[in-house]
Amino acid sequence: MNDDTPHTSEPPLMDAEHSQRELERRIFHLKTLYEVSQVIGSLRDPQQIMKNLLLMVIGTFGALKGVAFLVDNQQGRIAAVTQRSMDKTALAALSQAVEAIYLDEIRGVTDIQQAGEKILALLATSQIQVWIPFVVNEHFKGGIGLGAKMVGEPYTPNDQELLSTLANQLTVALDNALAYMEIHHLNVGLEATVQERTAELRIALEKLTEANQQLELHNRFIRETFGRYLSSAVVASLLESPTGLELGGEKRHVTILMSDLRGFTSLVGRLAPEQVVTIINRYLGAMVDVILQYEGTINEFIGDAILVIFGAPLWWPDHAQRAIACAVAMQLAMVSVNAQNQRDGLPEVEMGIGVNTGEVVVGNLGSHKRTKYGIVGTPVNLTARIESYTIGGQILISKTTLQEVGPILRIAQQMEIETKGIDRPITLYDVRGIGGEHNLFLPEGEDTFLLLSKRIPVKYTVLEGKYLGGPAFTGSLVKLSFKGGEIYSDTLVPAWSDIRLQLTNLDGEPIPGHLYGKIIRQYSEGPTGFSVHFTSMTPEVVAFFQSLLVVHM
Questions:
Q1: Does domain 18-227 correspond to CATH entry 3.30.450.40?
Q2: pTM (global) more than 0.85
Q3: 494: closest CA among 513, 520, 517, 458?
Q4: Domain ranges of the chain
Q5: How do residues 418-428 score in pLDDT, each as one tens digit?
Q6: End-to-end CA distance of the chain
Q7: What backbone torsions phi and psi does residue 58 show, to the nearest 5 degrees?
Q8: Is 248-441 a CATH 3.30.70.1230 domain?
Q9: Which residues, other chains included, contact 233 with Cβ-Cβ below 8 Å and sequence gap of 6+?
Q10: Which residues contact residue 534 at a Cβ distance below 8 angstroms, ignoring those fewer than 6 apart?
């Protein structure tokens, strides 16, 4: 790309790797939080809660030893203590020091590290390398300490961040358990002091309910975040804030890509279910890899069609360029898909892609029982219309996308079409590649027609959507290639119409099955007719065409 050509700079590879590591770190943190909440969330004994948490923390970080204790400042004693691989004498000394010697230092602070050097020195003597204090409420404080890692690595800031988050999770569970214990003690003398204790009981119950609700909301957030969305971009966006799960949307200027296999519906009827699944999974797997490479958000699969958003939820200033580059890369990837199909004795498939740019509403759509990250607006419908005009191996884009990307596109042709729901013709552009930093181009090559020595009579019907839409017309197949043909007919059918054809062989007998195609060019001068690109052929039609081409080559 020339120096004076405007372009949007791409983040360096290091930033991409950092973003990937950051996403993996967040997912690991959330999984760890979820596992911890599942283990300690239902426990009511503070000692058991701390014991289970310490074991999980030691396992998570691979520590050689660990200790955790809870101090009751009001009573002036240790309420709970647990350890792993600590020397009993060292543990006893630590407990005695915390309870009897340094309790005054802990009583008035929220961070034990503010209590001076005595407690930290004692921890260091016990070979504790990292220490995270926590505060349950105004009466209870404590801390978690870990020894060296088995692998000898130091504790990183990410380790300390996760340990602090686990300590916060512990405070929720401990507050829950202490509230439960408080209720239990209140119930012992409830008969004698009903009126006196009613207010305290109500407060304790409210605290317990609130703690349970907070824990349930946290767990639900984790489950819904991992279970509702498939796109890693959407997950990363949601993990930034729990409000990402709220219903609602926003207006965004985005580029939309829609792809679909040409003639796949009729192909399905001729294949075994296992073969259909193999083809569709192979195709979708290859396309998903390409889409994620260009940071597209896969909105949904609709049968063999894919709807992709560029520019939401993650904003990319060059979203239109990314979409075009992705479309070209997807078409190039079809070569590998069909090579694998051929090795497995399966038919080749072709894909058409439509791309459009415009302002849409994106966000969480649905109800509280079922929600999806979706996209609505006229540009979405227009993208589907554009895609419906494509033939296999083709990429058609709208004028808005062309204007967004600029002169780095290689355009083979432009066409005017009329479509339902739009009161004026729209211009579409046949893209063959994109330059600039992407530098991706589809292979060149015209489909060469061979003149047949004898015309083949045909009957054809125009399709409306996927259904027959009118009377049958007659014509003659006069030229043929592996992917299309030229038909003479007195009836002029609009370009880009889908048709179904019935052929007869050289003996005048009908060929079993039907042939489907899309009209790509009209001839109104000389012999009237049209060129057609074949989208679906039965095995009988394929064999008949092969026999004709062998004779005429």
A1: yes
A2: no
A3: 520
A4: 18-227, 248-441, 450-552
A5: 877 777 889 99
A6: 43
A7: -60, -45
A8: yes
A9: 295, 297, 313, 314
A10: 483, 484, 485, 515, 516, 517
